[in-house]
Amino acid sequence: MNIAQKSARYADLSDVSASAKFCVVVMERGNIRAFPSDRPMITDENREDGDGGKMTYLSKGKVTFREEPRNRSRPKFRQLSRDVSGEVFDIPEEHQVIFAYETLHGKSTLIGAICYKTADSRLTEPDSTFDSDYYHVIAFLFVKGDFQCQGVGRQLLDRAVLSMLSVTRRPIRVQSAERAVAFFEKMGFVQVGQPFESMCGPRLFKFLFNMEKIVK
Questions:
Q1: How far apart are CA 115 and CA 59, in angstroms?
Q2: Range list of β-strands (E), the chain
Q3: Of residues 57 and 137, which shows the higher confidence score?
Q4: How far apart are CA 3 and CA 115, in angstroms?
Q5: Where are the domains of the chain?
Q6: Which of 124, 157, 185, 199 has the fewest CB within 10 Å, making it most exposed?
Q7: Beta bridge pairs of residue 112
Q8: Are 144 and 101 in contact (CB under 8 A)?
Q9: Residue 65: which of 103, 98, 114, 105 has the closest Cα?
Q10: What is the mean pLDDT of the chain?
């Protein structure tokens, strides 16, 4: 059984819904979140912050996106996964992470993260496994409940895609929960083969969908 089969999957409602190969966050601690109409909405304004990260302004704060080294990221990534999904997940070896922070009244708060692995450009063709090192892979995507449905997850995904494609232009793959399929289709992913039944994890993710984004 590979790591994908051993890990629970959740989905992230950053726009319609989002998902990841190992973990996709659909609910926060089992409850679907409803957001009042006066929640801050993301604008299109982006600029560099003092540390080289990208800032996206909200009506009540700003969101900064930063890639951080794995050895320094693991504790905060574990805590974020627990806060969002109720379970603790670690960053797999050879994966990178981009974090999203909100700054409001001088206080910076971690609100989301995406974990991904860049394809091995030395490989000339894939092996038989869906998550072959030949492909780029999205592993985890987390957004805290109060910031879901505001585009944070979409921007995390966009930044991860840009990072991966800057190394080599290969297809991007993800294993999605059923509820997240529509989101990934909206982001340019298509289903590969038939859905399959997961051998472990929550009932909500009993069936998983292999999805791929073709890069031209």
A1: 27
A2: 11-12, 18-19, 23-24, 46-48, 54-58, 61-68, 96-104, 107-117, 136-143, 172-177, 190-191, 196-197, 207-213
A3: 137
A4: 15
A5: 3-26+37-213
A6: 124
A7: 100, 143
A8: no
A9: 98
A10: 75
User: Lowest-confidence range among 3-12, 48-57, 75-84, 187-196?
Assistant: 3-12
Q: Which residue has the tokens 């070896």?
A: 93
Conformation bin of residue 94: beta by default, left when phi > 0, alpha when psi is -120 to 50 = left
Tell me the CA distances in angstroms from 105 to 60, 66, 135, one per residue in order: 9, 20, 41
Q: Is the pLDDT of residue 27 over 50?
A: no
Structure tokens at 49: 């912050």
pLDDT digits (tens, 9 = 90+) for 153-182: 899 999 999 999 999 999 999 988 787 788
Q: Which fold has domain 3-26+37-213?
A: Aminopeptidase (3.40.630)
> At 80, which amino acid appears?
L
Query: Which are the contacts of 97, defined by CB distance < 8 A and separation ≥ 6?
Result: 67, 68, 70, 73, 77, 91, 113, 114, 115, 116
Count the alpha carbons within 13 Å of 113 in the hemisphere toward its beta carbon: 31
Residues 6 or more apart from 134 whose CB is under 8 A from it? 119, 120, 123, 125, 126, 127, 170
Q: What's this model's pTM, rounded to 2 decimal places? A: 0.72
